Amino acid sequence: MYSNDPFQAAIDEARQGLAEGGIPIGSVIVHGDKIIGCGHNRRVQKGSSILHGEMDALENAGRQPAAVYRQCVLYTTLSPCSMCSGAILLYGIPRVIIGENKTFMGEEDLLRSRGVAVEVLQSEECIRLMEEFIRKNQKLWNEDIGA
What we know:
Blueprint: H1 6-19, E1 26-31, E2 34-40, H2 43-46, H3 53-61, H4 66-69, E3 72-76, H5 82-91, E4 95-98, H6 108-113, E5 117-120, H7 124-136, H8 138-144
Parallel strand pairs: 3-4, 4-5
Antiparallel strand pairs: 1-2, 1-3
Helix pairs in contact: 7-8
């Protein structure tokens, strides 16, 4: 169902979102060696104000005990915004692996200040995906980030 590589699964989610006419940001949540939630930005597809990739992955993980989230790693193709970072903090997710922060710098400093281990990969694939999307869809992108 998913790639064995959680980061690749997040990229696959981002590509699925783009194919659906949405914004190409994907995320997966891993507990142990199992993906328990995956998602992609579906604001356009669902007419939602909150379904960023990370929020969709959390929604798809379903109701989990806090102890589960405290043992998870969240993979996301783009630096998490304020809303998504707040959810990461709320549920105590201790580690976040980010595809890139060149096209958008989210709340990485906030996450780090609250003890979250943050790793940024600067994936060329993620950068290209977002740069191309932003170039073609500036108005939609500005809407997504609240600009």
